[in-house]
Amino acid sequence: MMKRLLTLLLLLLPAGCTGIPEGLDVVDDFSLERYLGTWYEIARLDNSFEKNFEAVSATYTLKPDGKVRVENRGYDTKKNRWKSVEGRAKFDGPSDRGALKVSFFGPFYAGYNILALDREEYRWALVSGHDRDLLWILSRSPEMNPELLEELRRKSAEFGFASEELRLVDQSERAEGASDGE
């Protein structure tokens, strides 16, 4: 009986990591084709899986089978080396809404919610996980206009995130002299 209960809990656990933070909604009229490509992490709420990482980027590409390939890459300042991880993304609902889920480990998915987006040129995005513990400010370029960054910080505070805890990600010259090799 206990073994069955533990198995059930392990199966249900990943379901709790997807979805949209309570009281918020994602962008609509979303275009995956326009979102594909490389995004640079400008700021984030710190999390365990990016600890000691700078120069973080994510690249989204469409595979021949129609699925989305995700490559997250960053420089581990503690180990002085580049690391990358490949995963996959899929929509969590209709494909014209910015609610996706990503997986970097087997069948386990996490929420990837586009809460705000430059709708004209897809130059920046404000992305959260399934709750208010994960937040990223992303840009198509490694730098962001300070006024825009401040505007996105304010928006994240309006959405109920701890915007004062947003940490700037060092995107300068390959994170303090790191070479681009792996």
UniProtKB/TrEMBL annotation:
Signal peptide region: 1-19
Keyword list, A-Z: Signal
Lineage: Bacteria, Pseudomonadati, Chlorobiota, Chlorobiia, Chlorobiales
A single GO BP: response to stress
PANTHER family: APOLIPOPROTEIN D
Stretches assigned to the Lipocalin/cytosolic fatty-acid binding domain: 32-170
Keyword Transmembrane helix: no
Protein family membership: Belongs to the calycin superfamily. Lipocalin family.
InterPro entries named in the record: Calycin, Lipocalin_ApoD, Lipocalin_bac, Lipocalin_Blc-like_dom, Lipocalin_CS, Lipocln_cytosolic_FA-bd_dom
Listed name of the protein: Lipocalin family protein
